[in-house]
């Protein structure tokens, strides 16, 4: 027989907590009440903060903002799966990660208010400042993982991207380098079905995004991205494997962007309304709520307390952010480690001779 | 008919695609959504997915694929959503589009248009406000066009779509909807490589393009109030540049102010100033003055006003140069 098969691969799909709030009996992680409440509270905080931001943007108190509604389980579940020594490389739609890593919410607010100091993030939080160009964080996270390993650090790197980012060359560079260098990298791709208006089916002819890992020689898995149990468990395992020298993993988390790409576009132009309803029935928060209710961890009083406390935190952060006074001269002071003589001159011309 | 620049470009694409079946649009969100600036609105419905391609999210893929199309009989119009995201595609422009003609001594060519919404002052995020035209002007073999009005945008794009070379078409985002003006319905060409003297004057020559032409016009008005006669040249095409129009004007005024939104160092004004210094030194009555952005990272919206040249700075430069 002149033909023999040289490669075979398959991709699994994981869902633990279904849309009705029922967990698979064999795979239910049986999280503690405290852990479940933490998951719930952060998802509610993310959603209420998101809604607030959209309202603020509409009234001009915030600039272009990238909504996260519907994708809460991915950022919250994955961040809870991180160990202290791990690094996160979020994309711009994963704002809540910054706060969950310990960064004040007011700082995250500053980012979306178009204030540079919002990204003045202390490296001690191990959360890399996001960038706007799609996918650039992917190979950089691979390099970061390599450096951690080389310097004898224990941590792995969890890097986020969207379905659109898998079309950029950077995604493929990152996957290839991670495979070849066997770096401690976990790629978590939020497949929210659309890159602005372009549907997932026009992004790639591949049946799944997860299968792309197979081409680069490592494990890829697809999960229900609206199932926080699946997110937490899968990311946790992948990070552990990475830390132990087992190399990279690609996780495709299937979800849906309920809102617009940013406050600058109208999804009504490019996708059917029924889709949104379909996905609302698969909401990540609702299903956790039902699960907790069945366990006796959730009731309407708890809900009320959570909502009130989240809103208070959001309001306090906003107040702090709005009180922040920017020094315009900062725009000249961080171009180089030391400001050049020429820039000193330009700064003087800009401010002292007062063009504005 | 009165049109905004976005409408004028849309109209041009519509007409050109009807005229020439080889024209194909390719870019992110250019189809169903009609483009993030609504510039390609309605074209998908009219011409279908075969000619209006919502591409995967890859600038390098868009431009690389467009080059392949152009070398095989199609005339692609590739859109890069924001010019600040162009860099992934730079490789294809510098290493292939700009060189193929020379490399094959004319046997293979890349007649295509790359549309690049550029410039700031639209309250957007980082990388949405850059003016990097000089990076491309530095590359021989590609043309760089930058309209400053709806009328010019339509005529210059029409010419670009029949040009033999790759044209990078820089569209000033802040002018997409800034104003409307009378734009002829029917097709017309504005030749590439020719500047437009939008105002004749005798005291100072002001050279600008794109959004800065619009901003400079107010400054020119202000200078007029002070009795200064300004000759305002809008370059329209930056590469190849219409040096003759510049030299002719400097011979008359002996004074030059050059305005651009891009950063100062190595901005195109540096080249213009050098050309004037080389050729017109004996005519010069005052130092050549540049009004540009600073050599910094363009600030986010709340502070970006400190970066952009605006009316006051330009007017002051005109007055200082005139009174030198």
Structure explained in plain terms:
The complex is a heterodimer of chains A (356) and B (324). Chain A contains 14 helices and eight strands. The longest helix of chain A is centred in the first third of the chain and has 26 residues, at 33-58. In chain A, helix 1 (33-58) crosses helix 2 and helix 2 packs parallel to helix 9 (228-243). Chain A is α/β, with parallel strands linked by helices and 356 residues long. Chain A folds into two domains: 13-325, Rossmann fold (3-Layer(aba) Sandwich); 328-356, no CATH class. Chain A is globular and about 80 Å long. Chain B has two domains: 2-182, Rossmann fold; 196-323, Rossmann fold (3-Layer(aba) Sandwich), CATH 3.40.50.920. Chain B has helices at residues 5-19, 43-47, 59-70, 87-97, 100-103, 133-137, 150-160, 211-225, 243-253, 268-280, 301-304, 311-323; strands at 2-3, 23-27, 52-54, 75-79, 113-118, 142-145, 166-172, 181-182, 196-199, 204-208, 230-234, 237-239, 256-263, 289-293. In chain B, the strands form three sheets. Chain B has a seven-stranded mixed beta sheet, with helices on both faces. In chain B, strands 9-11-10-13-14 form a five-stranded mixed beta sheet, with helices on both faces. In chain B, strands 1-8 form a two-stranded antiparallel sheet. In chain B, helix 9 crosses helix 10. The longest helix of chain B is centred in the first third of the chain and has 15 residues, at 5-19. The radius of gyration of chain B is 19 Å and the shape is globular. The mean pLDDT of chain B is 97.
């Amino acid at each position: 027989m002149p033909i023999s098969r040289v490669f075979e691969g398959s991709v699994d799909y994981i869902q633990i907590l279904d849309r009705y709030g029922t967990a698979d009996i064999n795979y239910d992680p049986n999280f503690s009440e405290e852990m479940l409440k933490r998951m719930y509270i952060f998802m509610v905080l993310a959603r209420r903060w998101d809604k607030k931001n959209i309202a603020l943007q509409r009234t001009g108190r915030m600039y272009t903002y990238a909504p996260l509604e519907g994708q809460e389980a991915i950022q919250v579940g994955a961040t809870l799966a991180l160990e202290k020594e791990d690094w996160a490389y979020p994309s711009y739609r994963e704002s809540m990660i910054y706060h969950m890593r310990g960064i004040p919410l007011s700082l995250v607010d500053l980012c979306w208010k178009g204030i540079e100091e919002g990204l003045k993030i202390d490296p001690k939080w191990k959360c890399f400042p996001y960038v706007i160009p799609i996918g650039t964080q992917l190979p950089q996270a691979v390099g970061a993982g390599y450096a951690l390993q080389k310097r004898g650090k224990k941590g792995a790197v969890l890097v986020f991207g969207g379905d659109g980012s898998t079309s950029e060359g950077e995604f493929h560079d990152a996957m290839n380098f991670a495979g070849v260098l066997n770096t401690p990298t976990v790629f978590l791709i939020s497949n929210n079905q659309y890159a602005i208006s372009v549907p997932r089916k026009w992004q790639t002819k591949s049946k799944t995004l997860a299968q792309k890992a197979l081409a680069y020689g490592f494990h890829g898995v697809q999960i229900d991205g609206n199932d926080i149990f699946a997110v937490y468990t899968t990311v946790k395992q992948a990070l552990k494997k990475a830390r132990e020298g087992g190399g990279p993993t690609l996780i495709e988390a299937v979800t849906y962007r309920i809102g617009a790409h940013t406050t600058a576009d109208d999804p009504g132009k490019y996708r059917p309304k029924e889709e949104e309803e379909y996905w609302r029935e698969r909401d990540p928060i609702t299903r956790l709520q039902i699960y907790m209710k069945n366990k006796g961890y959730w009731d309407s009083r708890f809900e009320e307390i959570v909502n009130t406390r989240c809103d208070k935190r959001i309001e306090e952060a906003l107040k702090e952010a709005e009180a922040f006074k920017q020094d315009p001269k900062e725009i000249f002071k961080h171009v180089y480690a030391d400001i050049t003589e020429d820039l000193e001159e330009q700064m003087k011309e800009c401010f002292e001779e007062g063009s504005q | 008919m009165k049109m905004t620049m976005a409408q004028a470009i849309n109209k041009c694409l519509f007409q050109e695609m009807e005229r020439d079946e080889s024209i194909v649009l390719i870019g992110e969100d250019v189809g169903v959504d009609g483009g993030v600036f609504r510039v390609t609105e309605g074209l998908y419905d009219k011409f279908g997915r075969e000619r209006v391609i919502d591409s995967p999210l890859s600038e390098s893929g868009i431009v690389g694929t467009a080059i392949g199309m152009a070398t095989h009989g199609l005339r692609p119009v590739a859109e890069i959503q924001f010019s600040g995201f162009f860099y992934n595609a730079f490789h294809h422009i510098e290493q292939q589009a700009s060189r193929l003609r020379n490399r094959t001594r004319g046997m293979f060519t890349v007649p295509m248009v790359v549309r690049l919404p550029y410039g700031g002052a639209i309250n957007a995020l980082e990388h949405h406000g850059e003016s990097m035209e000089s990076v491309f002007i530095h590359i021989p073999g590609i043309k760089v066009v930058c309209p400053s009005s709806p009328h010019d945008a339509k005529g210059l794009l029409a010419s670009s779509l029949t040009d033999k070379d790759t044209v990078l078409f820089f569209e000033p985002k802040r002018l997409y909807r800034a104003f409307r003006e009378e734009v002829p319905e029917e097709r017309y060409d504005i030749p590439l490589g020719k500047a437009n003297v939008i105002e004749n004057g005798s005291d100072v020559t002001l050279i600008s393009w794109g959004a800065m032409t619009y901003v400079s016009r107010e400054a020119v008005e202000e200078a007029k109030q002070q009795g200064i006669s300004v000759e305002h040249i809008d370059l329209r095409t930056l590469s190849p540049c219409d040096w003759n129009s510049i030299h002719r004007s400097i011979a008359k005024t002996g004074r030059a102010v050059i305005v651009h939104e891009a950063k100062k160092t190595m901005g195109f004004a540096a080249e213009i100033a050098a050309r004037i210094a080389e050729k017109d030194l004996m005519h010069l009555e005052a130092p050549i003055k540049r009004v540009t952005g600073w050599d910094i990272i363009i600030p986010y919206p709340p502070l970006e006003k400190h970066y952009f040249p605006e009316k006051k700075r330009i007017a002051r430069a005109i007055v200082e140069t005139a009174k030198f």
